[in-house]
UniProtKB/TrEMBL annotation:
Domain PPIase cyclophilin-type: 25-179
Organism: Vibrio tritonius
Role this protein plays: PPIases accelerate the folding of proteins. It catalyzes the cis-trans isomerization of proline imidic peptide bonds in oligopeptides.
Cleaved signal peptide residues: 1-18
EC numbers for this chain: 5.2.1.8
Assigned protein family: Belongs to the cyclophilin-type PPIase family.
Name the UniProt record assigns to this protein: Peptidyl-prolyl cis-trans isomerase
Reactions performed catalytically: [protein]-peptidylproline (omega=180) = [protein]-peptidylproline (omega=0)
Keywords, in A-Z order: Isomerase, Rotamase, Signal
């Protein structure tokens, strides 16, 4: 086999077995998340639906709590609720933990209610993990580049807007989303 054959195998292997990555550009900078399709296939497919349909563009991080997490994806820059697909099954039992720099699905008290909102953990949040007593919050990837942007979000002042708490005073808006297969 020639070197071209080895190069072709390496290229195919990296394409077939590499995890998808999504880069978000915001008015505070860019960050990239690597998705874990193996451990969270339903959640990743759901998240990628919103990435591919372009509806995360123009949405904002509407809830940022220092020392906890930054949540986004569900509201536009004017805090208008964005359209969602049907809720998905909670995959929090997948073994992935809500550790620093991981991305997880936000949900209501109903474990199987996640749609489009996600959050990024600013620290290890063990109380969000699956257990026999806790349905948990499904982690489906991790920030691999630009975690400092997420940390910067937590330094911005927040306020209450109607029933919403911890809303950044200056909206942190997603301006571009790029998928790298």
């Amino acid at each position: 086999m020639g070197k071209w054959w080895i190069a072709l195998i390496a290229l195919v292997s990296s394409t077939v077995w590499s995890a998808p990555q999504v880069t978000f550009e915001t008015n505070l900078g860019a960050f990239t998340v690597e998705l874990n399709q193996e451990k969270a296939p339903i959640t990743v497919a759901n998240f990628l639906h919103y990435v591919k349909d372009g509806s995360y563009v123009g949405s904002q991080f509407h809830r940022v709590i220092p020392g906890f997490m930054a949540q986004g994806g569900g509201f536009d820059a004017n805090l208008k609720t964005l359209n969602t697909e049907l809720p998905i099954k909670n995959e929090a039992y997948n073994g992935l933990r809500n550790d620093t720099a991981t991305i997880a699905m936000a949900r209501t008290n109903n474990p199987d209610s996640a749609t489009r909102q996600f959050f990024i953990n600013l620290k290890d949040n063990d109380f969000l993990n699956f257990s026999r007593q806790n349905p948990g919050y499904a982690v489906f990837g991790k920030v691999t580049k630009g975690f400092d942007v997420i940390q910067k979000m937590a330094t911005k002042p927040t306020h209450n807007v109607g029933f919403m708490q911890d809303v950044p005073v200056t909206p942190i808006v997603i301006s571009k989303v790029t998928l790298t297969p």
